[in-house]
Amino acid sequence: GENRPLFYACYNGDSRIAKLLLETGKVEVNHKNKNGDTELTISCLNDNAELINLLIKYHSNIKCINNKGHYPVHIASINDKLETLKALCAHGADVKVQNAIGNQCFSMACINENIHIINYLLTHDIDINYINYSGDSALHQCCILQKKDIIKKLLSLENINIDVPNSYGFTPFIIACKKNDFELAKLILDQNKPVNIDAKTNSGDFPLFYATYYKNKELLQLLFDHNQPNINKNVQNNQGFTPLAMACFRGNENIGRILISDGVDVNIPTYKGETPLMMTCYYRNYSLIDLLIQH
């Protein structure tokens, strides 16, 4: 459908013009444009509670969904429109409805760093650990996007789950390691809540694997310091690479040294039968060859 005069008034957040149009009694409410937006969903781009109240008085549907799968409450949450969200809630809108990928208002406010919306939603009966259709909570999604300020806020919440895997087996901590983000990994470990640092994703990758893959000595040390002597340093990924095999494959002498001096098994082959020594010979990494032969 096309955009109509009421639609433009709402887009501009102009309740005076909207009122004049609605009072004629000749304006159709809940008309959808080509994006599936109604006068109410488009009003949520503004922070005009008076306009929201007016439209609902004239029977605008607070449960309408646009083509992106967003309800009015979602649009307000994404765009940081607190007064609009409050007005919708006052008329019985549900902040727990899901969008097309299964996110609720809380996750949307978090990934868009809308702290006023987050604080308002926390006064409602919401599940801060709620997961979308990919198994991602607000915390997972903020870790993927590396939104540190919001992550700190989430980690400070009493009932936050910090070690749950998503549908692909990624916990927030594994996401931090995959992002090669030392600061984020440390932030999660500093919560003093249980974190399984040996956890594997569905594809068989794990924190120590990422630390060696990215040649991140600082991250490697963090993992060792956090869980000595219990971390499994000989664990293999789905191709059979141990952290040492990965260090040899990547030609990383520093990390190879740390692992070897820490007593890892230097002879574990990959599932194709390649040992760390074979890899270093293939890549002609003389200092690593020396080191492996000594052990």
Question: How does this structure look, described?
Answer:
The protein has 295 residues and is mainly α. The radius of gyration is 26 Å and the shape is elongated. The chain contains 18 helices and no strands. It starts with a helix and ends with a helix. The chain has helices at 5-11, 15-23, 39-43, 49-57, 72-78, 82-90, 105-111, 115-121, 138-144, 148-155, 172-178, 182-189, 207-213, 217-227, 243-249, 253-261, 276-282, 286-294. Helices cover 47% and strands 0% of the residues.
In short:
This protein is mostly helical and about 300 residues long. It has helices at about 5-10, 15-25, 40-45, 50-55, 70-80, 80-90, 105-110, 115-120, 140-145, 150-155, 170-180, 180-190, 205-215, 215-225, 245-250, 255-260, 275-280, 285-295.
